[in-house]
């Protein structure tokens, strides 16, 4: 369900959005842009909220062990953003 809203935006920004989004594409374009920014802001919020959660985890007794874990994952081609089963 869509909700009508009224936003005040700079004229030059609206002109560029209209140029890129095409005729009658402004709402879709703005909604997609907001969704991308919101996802990023929510991820940042979650990262900050979880900081230190593994502080005393036995797998990572030192900062060096964390670095080694990350390097091993990169070397093995592990993608932390991909969907993983398990």
Describe this structure in words.
This protein is mainly α and 86 residues long. The chain has one domain. It is 57% helix and 0% strand. It has 3 helices and no strands. Helix 1 packs across helix 2. The longest helix is centred in the middle third of the chain and has 25 residues. The protein starts with 10 loop residues before the first helix and ends in an 11-residue tail after the last helix. The mean pLDDT is 90.
Quaternary assembly: single chain
Biggest beta sheet summary: none
- What is the number of helical segments per DSSP (H or I, 4+ residues)? 3
Gyration radius, rounded:
21 Å
Mean pLDDT, nearest integer? 90
Question: Which runs of at least 5 residues are low in confidence (pLDDT < 50)?
Answer: none
Backbone shape: elongated
SSE diagram, text form:
Elements: H1 11-21, H2 26-50, H3 63-75
List keywords for this structure.
single chain, 86 residues, mainly alpha, 57% helix, 0% strand
Short description:
Helix content is 57%, strand content 0%. It has helices at 11-21, 26-50, 63-75. The protein is built from three helices and no strands.
């Amino acid at each position: 369900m869509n909700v009508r809203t009224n936003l005040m935006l700079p004229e030059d920004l609206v002109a560029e959005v209209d140029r890129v989004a095409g005729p009658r594409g402004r709402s879709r374009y703005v909604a997609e842009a907001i969704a991308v920014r919101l996802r990023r802001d929510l991820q940042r919020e979650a990262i900050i909220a979880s900081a230190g959660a593994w502080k005393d985890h036995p797998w990572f007794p030192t900062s060096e062990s964390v670095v080694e874990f990350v390097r091993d994952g990169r070397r093995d081609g592990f993608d932390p953003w991909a969907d993983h089963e398990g």
